[in-house]
Amino acid sequence: MLKSESRPETSRHDVLDALRGFALFGIFFANIPFFAGWLFVDNDAKLNIAGAELYDSFMLFFIDGRFYTIFSFLFGLGFALQLSRLQAKASDHANYIYLRRLGILLIIGLLHHFVFWAGDILTLYAVLGFALFFVRHLSDTKILYLAAAFFLVPVIGYWAFWTLDINPSLGLYELTGQFVSGQANAGSFLAGFYEVVYTTDLLRFFELNTQLGTGRIGYYFDTWRIPKVFAVMLLGMWAGRRLVTNHLFNDEKLINRTIVIGLIIGLPSSIAYSTLSGLNSFQPHSTEGYISVIAYTLAVFPLGFAYIALFVKLWNNNSGLLKMFASPGRMALTNYLMQTVLGISIFYGIGFGLAIQYGPASFVLIAILIFVLQVILSNIWLKHFQFGPVEWLWRVLTYGQWFKLKR
Questions:
Q1: CA 384 to CA 350: how far, in whole Å?
Q2: Considering only CA atoms, which of 224, 192, 207, 194 is closest in space to residue 293?
Q3: Do residues 200 and 349 make contact, with C-beta atoms less than 8 angstroms apart?
Q4: Which residue, among 403, 383, 367, has the nearest Cα to 331 in the 3D structure?
Q5: Residues facing residue 385 across a β-bridge
């Protein structure tokens, strides 16, 4: 229903909530192979599992990286909106409030990262949120140039690390392997991920998560995730500034151009990326690894931005089905953390222990069912309460005052 940005503020931002909900679904879809232990099934074993090759190809072609692109973009966009709103309402304290808000998110992320699940994204987002704060005064043109530079960092960086023989994870895989089993190698680090899925010992589960959190940081370096996410956030900040001045969602030329260019570049590059079987992480530097970094950059980000533009275009054309994503998007932090709880409860040894009990078709079904459940519960919750429970706590801690939760 968003025909124009002359609509009221709440209506104008409904599409952002829906986009956030859409990204939330895609992120869980991307994470469920980890929860289910699918990432630890070797290729030979997959030959005997129905639909395995189709599932892996689908994930690499349509899912891998595309939805964290949307989430990162929305984080940067939200940064611009929040800072603008805070400066309008409390200009003297806007910076302090925003930094405090980021600090609380960082604490939540660290607890999630090192206690419950090493696949956390909140910690990285909070840290890069501070980086966004320090470039907030740059002009739009400089922001775009900076984003372009950070998109190139993985391609240049991989080559530099390879040439200089620098450890892809800066040694954090080996350090984590030492923590997990006393053997300082990447294989022990990966074995720790396998163990955390299958252990039935609750204390060992928490111990492993604390150890694996260090290796996860190494994964950020290995895959060059940090500059990638920051580049996307910068584009989101640029878009947020345009949204503040009513020059974003009604810009049909920009939307159509993003869709067309994104598909032209992203689809063929996704074929190459899926043929390479992903990013070759946890592997020594190689020619194939370098090509996969280039293919990832050309496949993931153009297609991710095309997803965003296509979603907005459908929203502008009154696609009512997309409204179902709005409620879970309004309480995205709560739902993201709940996905961790549900994923662990269903698949891990400390839960029902259903990891690799069924084929990949079951992952698709479970991901859809859980998200449908989140849509239903989010709608029920928001009929009675103003915020999601974790969002409410985040708000209370940020402002240091009590807010009414019930409507």
A1: 33
A2: 224
A3: yes
A4: 383
A5: 406
